[in-house]
Amino acid sequence: MEFMKIPFYGFKVSLSHTYPEKRSQNAKPKWHQLWSILPVIFRYLYYYWKLYRKGRKPIMDFLYTENGKQIYGVPIGGLGSGSIGRGYRGEFCRFQLKPGIYEYNTVYADQFIVTIKDADKKTIFQSLLSTYEAPKNVLQSWKSLIDGSKCNYVGLYPRAWTEYNLTEYGIKLLCHQISPVIPKNYKDSSLPCAVFVWTVENTCDEDRIVTISFTFKNGVENIHDSGECTTSSFDTSEIDGLTLKHEIHNMECTYALAAKKSENINITKCKNFNPSGTGENVWLDLSKNGQFTKTDCMQKDYTSDFEDVGIGIACQTHVSPKTKQDIEMSLVWHLPEVYFGSMLSQLYDKYYTNFWDCPKEISNYALLNYKNWAQEIFKWQSSVLDDLELPEWYKSAIFNELYYVSDGGTVWLKLTPNEIENKLPGDPRLKYGRFAYLEGHEYRMYNTYDVHFYASIALAMLWPELQSVIQHDFHDYVYVELPQKYRALYDGHLVERKAKNSVPHDSGDPDECPFTLINGYPVHDVSEWRDLNSKFVLTVFRDYNIKVGDKDYLKYMYDACRTVMERSIVWDTDGDGLIENNGTPDQTYDLWIMKGASSYCGGLWLGALFAMTQMSKILENTTDFDRYSNLFKRALISFDKKLWNGTYYLFDTDSKMNDSIMADQLCGHWMTRCSGYNYNVFPEEKVKLALKTIYKNNVLKFGDGNMGAVNGYLPEGGVNCTSLQSEECWTGVTYSLASTMIFEGMLKEAWQTAGGLFKSMTEDFGMAYETPEAVYLTKFYRSIGYMRPLSIWSMQLAWERRKQLGTNC
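RE: above sequence
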């Protein structure tokens, strides 16, 4: 079966791999940068102290940041059902099961174990199938004896393959890990599960008896979480398995291990072992018998209060010389109801519970359907992997960066009964529920819109209904007013949490009451941000075009678009049709000041004005068409006059170093291109000149052209170090810039821009499956596991558009 084989492309390392460079998040501001943000730091420390006294954590913890562990492989799980990380060495790590909370634990009891017996049933080898370094205080009897240098890992999200070379014992093993993440499949993609298919190959001339055992413990760490643990067995005509019912942060959760039955497979189960002990009973039982023995007391159902509990399932098979045998196993984590913060009284049902309500059913479905999943994933990915014109690194990057759709703190929820009552017929949320993901593993805000603007292209292309439900949420948020005041950390001003007729920054903090208490971001008065309203309008317009002209969607969204545009026009202080920035970081670059007209916010505004002319035309609103056409023409003239300097668009008109070359200066053009338009806003010759300038300076003069595009570069030479963010390279911006280059036919430049950064992150820095928001030229990065890099899918959109148009690629 071709669709089950190891792909040629992907993230590839041996299990003994180490990365050449160790970076951290400990970048320190330069003195001139520190001086400008010193008041912010003092206000942040006070804010931090107040939350600490309440037993809460800030949504962005700058005092205790997580450094990348350089261990991760493809995470497991569908969309919005919680995720469990897996290291490329075989460990289970980084649990994200309570909404918004990442627990960076490697649980040593969660293991696969191999036992190999010869034809005389004598055990000749037994080992853990991971090379993660063992803790000293638990399961001392369990040993990893495999040679990691002879074992190889390939990750191509949402699947992974691990090859174990045990030929000195006559065996090769291949583990194929599959999660149900399938474009436009909304049912299966919501499942909290993964399947592990073990292919056991006998490479010698003698019989071998091989056992693959799978163990798991309660909770998400090496100590007990809370509450009662109960284990039980289940058995159907197709599968055999057992469950471990326990609690995670006061939420009922059931782990299920299962295996598919076969006449060649003997399945035995362990209903209880002590994962905090030596593990000797389990290890010796497997070593002696190659299975969990039926006479052992462990075969009884088990209930325990306040103790760690482990379970296991073992599949033993006889493999003749030069033959293969598959062992099919699954892991399910059934956590059907979740709560946010400490609000135990308000539980939300996960979306998958529309279809399944017990772990046995999910296990059975997964083991009977994983081949269909693998075939659908293979078919989806083949159009990219088989394209000879695409570079090898890209074929890994485009899929592996997609890890964030499941491992981005993602929640996919059913609407509550009250929410259902307030929705109109045809609202996609009635069918598809509510979908949200965090800005970053460490930046705990749902659907941060200024960042989602970049990342949303992945949802729009692959799960357009999920993108639609987010847009419908933000449509409703536009009209919400939350008058309660907070003191903004940036300037200390007392501002409303949410101003009416504006696009909010985010859907809320999972430690509060998200989707109701929106705008969890405490740093700025985001109602004054110059990019959010324009980004909403541009995203509506792009989604309309990607959805191939869904006029009902456009009709529903149009009034909110007009509302936020009318609010934004007040920022045109000189009446030329072009909005101005106010001299604070009033946009997604929230530490980088823009003042006066700016290429970034002004370009987004031009794109939004153009989108309004097109949408009003489609909806036959002649009054609005005339108004926005007039504004657009005036703004276009002003933008060109104020900001074009002959080779690129100036950063802005009135700030220090206003002639800085900004990597993201064509953001508005990028989104109009993603919407299917060419040069309706920005002239072709100026776009290409600006891109060449950016490539020559921000790319080639930063890290020898192998580190992506630095945000700001000075025309006289050198990185713009005005602010922390101007000297950073933003991963997601580099990808969107490369997408723009592809649209413009600058293919060599695009592959170098994005490829240099991706290869540096995955080959040098060890940031696979925890892509940061930003990297510095040396030593540092910022914010591991971030949303914006999903913008890489705009590169694929640009590529597909060029191919469709028959452009010579």
